[in-house]
Design brief:
- This protein has 821 residues and is mostly helical.
- Helix content is 51%, strand content 5%.
- The chain contains 33 helices and 10 strands.
- A 6-stranded mixed beta sheet has the order 6-5-7-8-9-10.
- Strand 7, helix 28 and strand 8 form a beta-alpha-beta unit.
- Helix 10 packs across helix 23, helix 15 runs antiparallel to helix 24 and helix 26 packs antiparallel against helix 27.
- Keywords: Membrane, Transmembrane, Transmembrane helix.
- It is a multi-pass membrane protein.
- InterPro entries: SLC26A/SulP_dom, SLC26A/SulP_fam, STAS_dom, STAS_dom_sf.
- It comes from Xylaria arbuscula.
- It is found in: Membrane.
Length: 821
Amino acid sequence: MSAPLPPPDGSQPPSQPHLPSTPSGLRKSTAADDDGHGHDVETACRSPSRQSGLPSAGANRPYHDDATQTDNDNHDTVFRPLSRPEYPPHGASSVPESDSMLHDETTSLLHSERAYDSPRGHGTFSPRALSPPLRHAQAESEGTTLLGSDAPDTPQNLFKRAAAWILQNLKITTAMALAEQHGVKMSWYAVVSYYIPCLTWLRQYRPSWLLGDLTAAITMTSMYLPMALSYAENLAHVAPISGLYAFVFQPFIYAILGSCPQMVVGPEAAGSLLVGSIVKANIDGGQGQEDDAVVHAKIAGVAVGVAGASVFMMGIARTGFIDNVLSRPFLRGFISSIGVVIFIDQLTPVLGLNKVAASVPNVPHHTTVDKFLFIITHLTQWHRLSGIIGIVSFVVIMVLREVKRRLQSRYPKVAYFPDRLFVVVLSALLAYKLGWESQGVEILGKVEAPSGRIFTFRNPFQWSHLPHILEALGTSFLIGMLGFFESSVAAKSLGEPDHIEGMQLSPNRELIALGVANIAGSCFMALPAFGGYGRSKVNKSTGGRTPISSVLISIITIICIRYLLSWFYYIPKPVLSAMIMVVAWSLIEEIPEDLSFFARIKGWKELLLMATIVTVTVFFSLNLGIAIGIGWSLLEVLRHATKSRIQILGRDPTTGKFKDVDGGHAEEIKKIEGCLIVKIPEPLTFANTGELKGRLRRVEKHGTNMGHPALPRLRPQASNRNVIFDIHGVTSLDGSGAQVLEEIVRKNREQGIRVFFSRAPSRTHNVWKLLERSGIVKLVGQEHFVSSIDDALRMAELLPGPAPEGAGGGREADHGAISAA
């Protein structure tokens, strides 16, 4: 082994008491020259940093676009970018066999050529894999040619351009290229069936499934058709037949376009109540009369149409992620408040106080508290027979519901028992036999379409309906949002079916399916219909396996509308109201569990949000509660999105790893004097870079994120001579983020502060390209883009000027820091 080379000026190197005078062979390594012969790495890589006990910058680094290396010919430390190595074929060694037996003092993980014998990376500091070029470049270029072709604008060429644009935006050309690359054939039928799921499950349908689907459809219609009548009559304030329409059009269309085979769409209490609030608002605005069923139906159709259109446009815009925007406390608080509103609203017809309420001005349009006070003050005027019928019906349904719940685990077939249909049929027979109508009990009466003809088509988006559209815009949007959220919860709970291959849940396709279904239903003035977990669970438990059960529900409902409407005549209205009260109770009964959970984890903010929504909705109005809840949730989302999450790193003296100085056991973390290490663990966008400058200014003054802005400077200016940005977490960067980062770097450079970037992306990455175009690379210098924090510290030591104190740490510290960062 050759002796250490003296410095170029002839002076003796400083004594190194911790270095042996004659290093052992284990500290010596060789690397292959271009001609295949080995050379002494220890001699070639000796530098001032090596003589001080630290490896030179880049000596231990894997190949990286921004790496640095030492000039070995003149022994001067020169930093320059390393080019990406040419990797040998898989299975071939990049080092001669004789050389592979020699080892350096550091582990092989810190040596690039030794550690990787193929273009594969298995860790954070592995060299980036050289992926083979995708073959979709030709497809994309063909699409671009179609789009930017100089061909004449014939109908055929225009169609080709439109098709190319659609294919590029849906990433179909890329998918086909990937399939071709892997030897898999991707047919156009597979693409079309992805967007029209019925083409997938129809090909796999088995005749043996028909009995289960038919049983589920009969069970569902027997249970939920009476509920649909109740929703329309008592909540939406429209003709009862509008509730039945919601089980004709929406389930059928969802069966064609929906991505969850076992989910059944239908009217819900919350959506029906919101439609009723729109109808009331239009009546209060003088755009209709209390008893004008035709106008009420038109207004309901407009509200449902706007809700469907908003959901459909969100699906086209691929905003399926929006189901994560509104928080669970908001949804739970809002749904519970709806349950309270519905329960108190239905007490009036259950107790037979409708006629008394009609004699008091504007009682139906008062707040929930006013209605409750009205019931308390006029309780002595209740209709005794109506009250008995309503209360008994409510108790019987609740008892049967609880009995079914307890017996279903031991006797699964008990789920087939239609408890609600049983109560409705029994009460209708008693009303007919005992003449309840003549005794003052309100009955449903003749069920017919407001226009006189069933299935009358009416375009809800006519110009003459513009006042109704403007009035319904905000509430209809909320109808769509709540319906989509509930559908999303139901779909995720049911999961993807095992018996149908190729059916994949997709929020964007769900939005499109629900939007188209409700737009079609609005043309016939149906109630809004979305997926419900309870209804879909009943469908699954009673044998429904495919969307055929939804199709059969539509067919059975059509038969009922055509031939059985007269059978609904004698259904007592108190019974329908009692059924709705059961639904309202189910909305309320889940709130204690949520309250207990958030109280246990001390989630005071969530509890405050829930309490605020319930209070505002009950004491003031439904729309005000909606506005406050949505505004609160959006503010929380924006606050979370714009919050800067930079970390200040220091070295753990026990492990040598770099850790957050503001994290746990912060007192054990050793800061590097003369150097500020800033970790940016997230993409930089216009949303979170606004706070980045202020955070960095605070960190430069205080050395921590925890200091108050009014606190005087705690960290000396000399401690910020070097700034290292760890940008491994910056996976994306937009123009605003690049501009703010450029301003930060420029200001530091003007103040004479040296700036380093560790773990930057490869030269082909969009982030690197934006760093170049913004001038950041030119300001800093390519040699200041290194692969690890340790490399940046070594470079700061070797460059002229005061070196950071505490940057060293021996081999263990270097290895620990690199593996930790």
